[in-house]
Amino acid sequence: MSLSAAQIATFRKHGHLTVPGVFEAAEMRRAIADLEQWGAEFLGHLPPEQRVWYVDAGVTAREVLRKLDNPVAHRPMFRALAADPRLVAMAHDLIGGGLTACFSQVFFKPPEGGGPKPMHQDNYYFGPDDPDGLVTAWIALDDATVENGCMWFGDGSHRGLILPHFAPPGEPFNLQIPDEIARLQAMSAAPVPCGGVSFHHGTTLHQSGPNRSQRWRRACAIHYVNEKTVFATPALPYDHDLFVRID
């Protein structure tokens, strides 16, 4: 399932690309079922000092997770998802071969509670020696809409600089663009239907809104790096034992 020349040109111009219909809805339901099992186990053993980072702080009827880290490393179903030929072929088209899933995350964003993710750049987090060597594949496990907190992108911002980020007090991993810079950047919404994938360049400014709907907005983000790129100046420590070579 390769990308067309027009799709690649769109990615090069805007720094992001939405591809609907990569996966079937039934595949996404199986992924969600696996997440529900993993999430219940994780929440049941989560130490009190980590709850502020992993548990959603929004108004919900019950305690729910905000995110889970490294599903590709920890869950066979998500490892298979990251290595799926349909997804890998498109990642090849954007950054070349020799792919490694260097980090992955699941975002739950529950109904009427899922909070926003502030504006940031993935390349600030990873510090690759080649800014073009990393791409994020954001897989919509549910329909992602403006109402339930889809992604927003700064079109063309991947052609600019990697900007300074800061971490709010008590949130050392929540690196983000300062408000005085973020408010100057025009952003465009990028809804993604269930089973679709949104690809974005590592330097593209992006964020997500809160979930104001009655529906979940679950997604899995897989960060691929090609074989020629190394993390020269990462802002956070990354466990290379959790890196998963894809091809």
Account of the protein in words:
- It is a single chain.
- With about 250 residues, this protein is of the alpha+beta class.
- The protein has a single domain, classed as Sandwich (Jelly Rolls).
- Helix content is about 30%, strand content about 20%.
- Strands 1, 2, 3, 5, 8, 10 and 11 form a seven-stranded antiparallel sheet that branches. Strands 4-9-6-7 form a four-stranded antiparallel sheet, with no helix packed on it.
- The radius of gyration is 17 Å and the shape is globular.
- The model has no long low-confidence stretch (mean pLDDT about 95).
Largest sheet: 7 strands, antiparallel
Examine the coordinates and then state which fold CATH places here, giving the name of the CATH topology. Answer: Jelly Rolls
CATH class: Mainly Beta
- For CATH, the homologous superfamily is named as q2cbj1_9rhob like domain
Helix content: 25-40%
Give a short summary of the structure.
The chain is built from eight helices and eleven strands.
Topology:
Layout: H1 5-14, E1 16-19, H2 25-44, H3 48-54, E2 67-69, H4 71-74, H5 76-82, H6 85-95, E3 100-107, E4 117-120, H7 122-126, E5 134-140, E6 151-153, H8 179-182, E7 188-190, E8 197-201, E9 206-208, E10 219-225, E11 244-245
Antiparallel strand pairs: 1-8, 2-3, 3-10, 3-11, 4-9, 5-8, 5-10, 6-7, 6-9
Keywords:
247 residues, single chain, Jelly Rolls, 4-stranded antiparallel beta sheet, 8 helices, globular, alpha+beta, 7-stranded antiparallel beta sheet, 20% strand
